[in-house]
Amino acid sequence: MNDQVLLATASAILNRATQLGASLAGFASVADLKRAPSFTFAPKMPNAGDYLEVWGNDLGLEPGKTAWPEHAKTILVMGVAHPEDKPEMDWWLGLENPPGNRILIDLAKTLCAWIEETFGIKTVHLPYRVEKGGTYLKDAAVLSGLGCIGKNNLLVTPQLGPRIRLRALTLDVVLPPTGPVDFDPCALCEEFCRNACPRKAFGSQIYAPEAYDQDLLPGRDGRFFRTTCQLQMDIDEIPLGAPGDGADPALPTIKYCRNCELACPVGKKVK
């Protein structure tokens, strides 16, 4: 394909993603993404292998490493809005995928079929978990121009703030990247997100740049402790079986804490 055809193809795919329900979408180079901060940090992270034990290591991955589909050259990242008044989009009912994730799965599957049928481009719908062949979605979203990593360690977008859920697919053709963009609302922010954390997961610097040979670390400056954050997630597990839950009472429902996310003023409508 020549440059003009590539641009037209990329534009058509992004338009189709929006028509199918994506709130935001963008492209990034797989080669660039492999050098992004999470990809270089994760293998060095203490206890990086913990999630391999939890989710299984059927791909034989080393801790923190990712597996890329053969011939993957471009990644398309899509996001759907997760409004404050729809918390159930992120709830796990037992082992059932959250509603928001099901929306993204359907979107990705439909878009993959359309891309292959329309353009003859081979696609691969990536699973969510890195351990299962997924990717570091926040880094991919940054390189796709969707936003930046905030002090809450979440993707922060101009349109929706951090109230967005992500999914991705790869293509076997090089399409023009749509990012990154010059956007950083956190530089002079009062840290509403960090102050809202019930577990003080941002209370001190856990990771130092000199120990990892990179400046951009979790929480931007190493002030995000995943283990402490997980303590709140564990608290947010409640037994099922209550009226109206409609799920197996032997399994928990997980209603994730969103305090740092909802405290962020970016993307909120001004009253």
Topology:
Layout: H1 3-19, E1 24-29, H2 30-33, H3 37-41, H4 50-55, E2 74-81, E3 92-93, H5 99-119, E4 123-125, H6 137-143, E5 148-149, E6 155-156, E7 164-171, H7 192-196, H8 209-212, H9 226-235, E8 237-239, E9 252-254, H10 259-262
Antiparallel strand pairs: 1-2, 2-7, 3-9, 4-7, 5-6, 8-9
Structure overview:
The chain is an alpha+beta fold. It has one domain (3-262). 31% of the residues lie in helices and 14% in strands. The chain is built from ten helices and nine strands. It has helices spanning 3-19, 30-33, 37-41, 50-55, 99-119, 137-143, 192-196, 209-212, 226-235, 259-262; strands at 24-29, 74-81, 92-93, 123-125, 148-149, 155-156, 164-171, 237-239, 252-254. The strands form three sheets. Strands 1-2-7-4 form a four-stranded antiparallel beta sheet, with helices on both faces. The protein is globular and about 50 Å long.
Class from secondary-structure proportions:
alpha+beta
Task: Give the helix proportion (percent range).
Answer: 25-40%
User: How many domains make up the 3D coordinates?
Assistant: 1
Secondary structure tally, helices: 10
Question: What is the β-strand count?
Answer: 9
**What order do the helices and strands follow?**
HEHHHEEHEHEEEHHHEEH
Overall average residue pLDDT? 91
What is the makeup of the main sheet? 4 strands, antiparallel
